[in-house]
């Protein structure tokens, strides 16, 4: 086996451990989700067991990532597209999808459980739930969104959002300048 392939395989275990910890999961949580034993998961993460497709595919599904993210496959396709995830606190990940200063910013976020703390600031937000359940507190109102549901609000109103329970939630998050609001078009423009 050549050195590059060996290096890729050696990096899988630590990558799996980081991904699991960043999402706030224990080995037991992951074993329950994937059907892979705790001891096998532990050996994979420590590098004492070679990863195989029958182990990596359920792990990719459980973490909702592409298989090539687990193995750090060489980049293919358009070399100009390189998303850079940013870690925010234990288990929360932010992936900027746009880079237009002063305009609507779009992010994919994985939010881990945390204590609600209301904030206010200038702007307008739209939240779309991809996976999990999202709890939103807007002033005195408190509600939960499920996959496929969306919320929009003026950020001058005291607000907080995060997972509705003990598991992480995955969302698309759009943030725009104050005064921006969604334009809903139900028919072609004339």
Q: Low-confidence segments, ≥5 residues, pLDDT <50?
A: none
Give the overall average pLDDT: 83
Structural class: alpha+beta
For the CA atoms, what is the radius of gyration? 19 Å
* Biggest β-sheet: strands ordered side by side in the sheet: 1-2-3-9-4-7
Approximate strand percentage: 25-35%
> What's the helix-strand series?
HHHHHEEEEEEEEE
Give the tally of β-strands. Answer: 9
Instruction: Please report the number of helical segments.
Output: 5
- Main beta sheet: 6 strands, antiparallel
Distance between the termini: 62 Å
Helical residue percent band: 25-40%
* Shape verdict: elongated
Can you give a write-up of this model?
The chain is of the alpha+beta class. It is built from 5 helices and 9 strands; from the N terminus they run αααααβββββββββ. Strands 1-2-3-9-4-7 form a 6-stranded antiparallel sheet, with no helix packed on it. A 3-stranded antiparallel sheet has the order 6-5-8, with no helix packed on it. Helix 1 (3-22) crosses helix 3. The protein is elongated. The chain starts with a helix and ends in a 14-residue tail after the last strand.
How would you summarize the topology of this molecule?
Elements (H helix, E strand, L loop, with lengths): L2 H20 L4 H8 L3 H9 L6 H11 L3 H5 L14 E2 L5 E4 L8 E7 L12 E8 L2 E5 L2 E5 L4 E5 L4 E5 L5 E8 L14
Antiparallel strand pairs: 1-2, 2-3, 3-9, 4-7, 4-9, 5-6, 5-8
Helix pairs in contact: 1-3
Short description:
The chain has 190 residues and is of the alpha+beta class. It contains five helices and nine strands.
């Amino acid at each position: 086996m050549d050195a590059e392939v060996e290096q890729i395989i050696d990096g899988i275990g630590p990558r799996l451990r980081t991904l699991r910890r960043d999402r706030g999961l224990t080995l037991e949580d992951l074993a329950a989700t994937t059907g892979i034993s705790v001891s096998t998961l532990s050996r994979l993460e420590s590098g004492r067991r070679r990863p195989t497709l029958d182990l990596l595919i359920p792990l990719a599904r459980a973490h909702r990532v592409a298989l090539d993210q687990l193995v750090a496959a060489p980049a293919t396709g358009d070399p100009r597209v390189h998303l850079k995830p940013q870690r925010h606190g234990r288990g929360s990940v932010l992936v900027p999808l746009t880079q237009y200063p002063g305009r609507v910013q779009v992010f994919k976020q994985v939010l881990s459980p945390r204590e609600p703390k209301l904030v206010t600031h200038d702007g307008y937000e739209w939240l779309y739930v991809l996976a999990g359940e999202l709890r939103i507190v807007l002033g005195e109102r408190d509600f939960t969104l499920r996959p496929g549901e969306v919320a929009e609000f003026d950020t001058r109103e005291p607000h907080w959002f995060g997972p509705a329970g003990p598991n992480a939630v995955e969302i698309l998050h759009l943030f725009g300048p104050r005064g921006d609001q969604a334009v809903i078009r139900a028919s072609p423009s004339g």
